[in-house]
Amino acid sequence: MTSVGDSALEQARTFGRGSAGRSADDLLEFLAREAAVVMRAERASIFLLDRAAGELWSRVAVGIEDRVIRLPIGRGIVGHVVATGELCNVSEPYADPRFNPAVDRATGYRTRSILCAPLRAESGATLGALQVLNKAGRQPFSVDDERLVWVIAQRCAAAIEHTQRVAMGQSSRLVAEAPRVGAPKLLLAQEGQPSACSLVDLFAADFQVVRSACHEEALSIVERERPDLFLLDVGSHPERAETCRALRATMAGREIPIIVVSASRRPEDTALAFDAGASDYIVRPYNPSQLRAKAHTWLLRTSRRPA
To answer: Would you tell me how many other CB atoms lie within 10 Å of the CB of residue 292?
Structure first.
């Protein structure tokens, strides 16, 4: 490589310094902006894998403010990278059948080149992908750029995994603390595999958490356990919010606050949930602290607060 390439590689190896102590959201923004600078690209995005929802999501797309991009696993260049674990260097995206132009259409942006690498945990598990767009000077990304992005992706994955471990450690400490006597009861209906920082862990310190593996089972549990709050995780299936309607038809579920957690932010899906009887609607990716605050607020409204 040239001396310029060596300099860029050295910059990549020190990439991510200053990431310690950042919140999850701030970390993603920091890493994406740093990646765009080092790669000399117009934009960078970090997509994380949500296995429970079967989606990839990106809270940060540099150059696009206040946008969350969601893609089914396997769709688009980034979906292909996550599904296969292979790096993709695409010089003509619109000529590539894997390319998904929906984001360009929605934002008015024109993608001219893409370089995308998987983010792998220390165990080898896929965490998501780093995608950089449009190299400066309207040039395609080179083989040297591929070397750079691999190093940067490794640094991003290490920083993200560290943040997740810290979050899991905090959750584990919460679980270790038994709920106080007289703690309110929360029923969680969550089908499929829980996410890394599970909803059970999130509420275990303040609530007696009763979990239902399917939404149909939750109806019978409501009659038996008489929970103070119902948390309904519908994932990427907004139609499952109809469980609220069935619950409202029972004596035990008529007055219970119901918080629906969904991967969809479409207005029609939000309306469906409220029409079915939901009290509140939270969209993934959510802030855990805000979700806990919502739960406490609904308990206060019904005069049932944690002991």
So the answer is: 15
Q: What is the pLDDT of residues 14-48, one digit of tens each?
A: 565 555 556 666 778 888 888 999 999 999 989 98
Q: What three-state secondary structure class fits 176?
A: helix
Task: Name which of 139, 78, 123, 86 is nearest 103 in CA terms.
Answer: 78
Q: Give domain 3-171's CATH number out of 3.90.226.10, 2.60.40.1930, 3.30.450.40, 3.40.630.30.
A: 3.30.450.40
Question: Pairing mode, if any, of strands 208-212 and 69-72?
Answer: unpaired
Chain segment 79-107, per-residue pLDDT in tens: 999 999 999 999 999 999 999 898 788 77
DSSP-based three-state secondary structure for 115: strand
Peptide bond into 184 cis (omega under 30): no
- Which residues have a Cβ under 8 Å from the Cβ of 180 and sit 6 or more positions away? 206, 306, 307
User: pLDDT tens, 224-238?
Assistant: 888 899 999 888 888
Strand ranges (E), the chain: 41-50, 55-58, 69-72, 88-90, 114-120, 126-135, 185-190, 208-212, 229-235, 258-262, 280-283
Structural domain spans, the chain: 3-171, 177-301
- Could you tell me the CA-to-CA distances from 122 to 17, 126, 150, 213 in Å, in that order? 19, 9, 14, 30
Instruction: Give the separation between CA 128 and CA 139, rounded to whole angstroms.
Output: 26
